[in-house]
Amino acid sequence: MIYYVGVDVSKNKLDCLWLRDPENNKVKTRVFDNTAKGHQQLGQWLLNNIKAKPEEVYVVLEATSVYHEALTYYLHNAGFLVNVANPARVRNFAKGLGVLQKTDKKDSAVLARFGYQNGLQLWQPEPDEIRKLKSMLSRLEALESDLLRELNRLEKAEISNSSDVVIASLHKMIGELKVEKNRVEQEINDHIDQFPHLKKDRRLMQTIQGVGPVVSRLMLSVIHSRDFKSASGVAAYLGLVPKLRESGLQKGRSHLSKVGPANIRAKLYMAAVVAIQHNPDIKAQYQRLLSNGKTKMQAIGAAMRKLVQICFGVVKHQSEYQPQST
After folding, report:
1. Considering only CA atoms, which of 270, 268, 265 is closest in space to residue 307?
2. 137 in a domain, yes or no?
């Protein structure tokens, strides 16, 4: 027998709900601190109350920035069944239940009910090399953002004829940020090169016109983060599947679902713009969609999706990209 639990995760606390009787909607709730001690207390509370083995307890949480990660690993290592649910799927499920007002207790109830009605979908930890790669990529992105902000400040300072002290300080910070950015970038490349499968997969993806060093390392972190069964699964994870507008002035038009990591979509957008010019398959698709009446943004969205699908294909088949169009 499987017992269903929902945990609404926030920065400081965990709202836990055990769905004691799904048919009659009887529940038991408890709030814990989102700390290592709180995680242990939550796990013990579940075992004490449910009177079941960890492998009989199915805990559903949402992906919430980084705040769910420590609890997820704790529960998995303790033997519980864990599902880190896509927030977009949970929102749609909640709408179907008629849950309109958002509270922590209602959110945990929705998560428990989501697990009960959708069957077991088990989370598995990412390979250690991918977890480390993601953390380094996140640090690199932060450095790039800091560098861009300082460059913008320098531009404003020079236009406004600011103090020489301020301009000198900005130049110093920009120089240090560039050095650190280059160092972290080299660490990322060295990390990838340590693992033959990552090194090879990155090389294969870089045979695709439109995919360079930046997109290839990002796609490595995505494709190897979980057991994707198909290219469409990767595209859905990245929020690149078309979704039909159901209201408003653009009713009937499709747009990207935009769930998942926005930073990766931003990089894929730039890569798709390049691929439209230089990749024969994506260029042909782009022109065909425009001639069929699609907007430029819809055609670019399709180009992003196809680029992801090609990346998945060369990794899955372990072969270099061979254009189908001439």
Report:
1. 268
2. yes
Cβ(34)–Cβ(13) below 8 Å: yes
For residues 211 and 264, is the Cβ–Cβ distance under 8 A?
no
Q: Mean pLDDT of residues grouped by 10 in the chain (326 residues)? A: 94 94 91 96 96 96 84 96 85 76 74 91 91 95 97 95 93 98 98 97 96 96 89 87 55 56 90 95 95 93 95 96 82
If asked whether residues 108 and 185 sit together in one domain, one would say no
The DSSP secondary-structure symbol of 1 reads -
- CA angle 288-260-186, nearest 5°? 95
- Report pLDDT for 326: 59
Q: Is 280 helix (H, G, I), strand (E, B) or coil?
A: helix
- My answer on whether 242 and 310 are in the same domain is yes
Residue 322 falls within a domain, yes or no? no
Judge if 264 and 305 occupy the same domain: yes
Question: Cα–Cα distances in Å, from 254 out to 245, 257, 266?
Answer: 6, 9, 19
Question: Which of 194, 222, 247 is the C-terminal boundary of a domain?
Answer: 194
81 - beta bridge partners?
58
Asked if residue 215 and residue 175 are part of one domain, the reply reads: no
Model-wide pTM > 0.85: no
Angle of the 196-205 helix axis to the 164-193 helix axis, nearest 10: 110
Domain boundary residue among 118, 145, 162? 118
pLDDT of residue 121: 87
| DSSP H or E stretch at residue 168 | helix 164-193
Residue 300's beta-bridge partner residues?
none
Please give the torsion angle defined by the CA atoms of residues 144, 259, 6 and 40, in that order, rounded to the nearest 10 degrees.
-20
